[in-house]
Amino acid sequence: MRSDTGAPAGEAVAVRYAQVISVVVVVIVAVWHFGYDSLILVRSWSRYEPAWVALASWLVLSVVQLVGSVLLLRSGLHGRLAPLLSSVALLAGVAAVATYPRGEAIGDFSWAANTVGWFGVLLLMQRPMRELVALLACTIAMTTVALGVSGDLDTPVTWSRLITQSYTTAGIQLAFVLLARELHHAARLTTGAARAQADRMARRAAEEARHVERRRRYRYLRDRIAPLLHDLAEGRAHPGDDTVQRSSAIEATRLRRLFAETEDAAHPLLHELRACADVAERRDVDVTFVCYGELPDVPVAVRRRLTEGPLLALASAKTSARVTVVVTAGEIAVSVVADASASAAPRLVRSAGTSVLFDEKENLLWLESRWHVPGPRSTSASSTTTRW
Length: 388
What we know:
Blueprint: H1 9-43, H2 51-73, H3 81-98, H4 112-124, H5 129-149, H6 156-234, H7 242-261, H8 268-281, E1 286-292, H9 300-316, E2 320-327, E3 331-338, E4 349-351, E5 354-361, E6 364-372
Parallel strand pairs: 1-2
Antiparallel strand pairs: 2-3, 3-6, 4-5, 5-6
Helix pairs in contact: 1-2, 1-4, 1-6, 2-3, 2-4, 3-4, 3-5, 4-5, 4-6, 5-6, 6-7, 7-8, 7-9, 8-9
């Protein structure tokens, strides 16, 4: 089974999981950068030195966020593009940290390091984990360097704050990526198991269908052919009797049609009719076969009803027969003209959209089977009856 995008159904589920996770990441980064970072930047505008560098860093990160979000949602973060955008985001973060007031690398004025970490989640989530770990290590390093330059690393309190912030920010970001990967992996395992189960069920259904078909054929052989063979073997039926010969020809034709039903053919109905005609030709009957129109799909049960009457006529033909298949907008007609008696024709039958008609004239039997095609095709059906 396949999805609307052309991917297998199981793969499509895993892809949807990845798309949902990507949307969540895009929303988190957008809210964080355009909400939290903007608020800090506006509130502390006068404390950054120089302020235009902080603003430029924020703008560069905004561009990277927009480009990365679009590419992620379109599955376009491939090759070297993701590491390149991550490097640009890291440089913008370094520039922003350089504008912090002295001693405020960890405080109310800091925003860049945590933001660059979330940008790493956005851009490198689908990349090898080592790239994200390296980026997060760089964000921790630039905060540490800023604290060292300002001389604030000589107190245990600063180290404690640095470790705590690094653990909470980088830890949450790493945990988010690991969770996303586990969910995606679980989705693939689940869809793979569902696909395997569907395949097993399909194989079991196919095996059951084959078993039912074998039993149907066995019942046919037991109920129709076995009695005839048994009578011949015990002498109750004589091979020279015309009735026995006709019954043998009919059962041989039915048996050939039964085999033809399981053969692969572009047009099964025509294939089964030709199989019936082949049996007649083996008895030196001259058979002409013509078809007009494009055949639709015809169910097996309908094909059996359509071919039963022509089968009897062909099996009873003496020297010649003409088989004609006419396909109109809403109907299929199979007619046979053969030099056979009316006793070869079945009684008038109407069931499940099919009908059988016959007529006899000047030692010729005309027999026709019709099926009204259900659905839109039948709305413009034109009924035509062609005899001889």
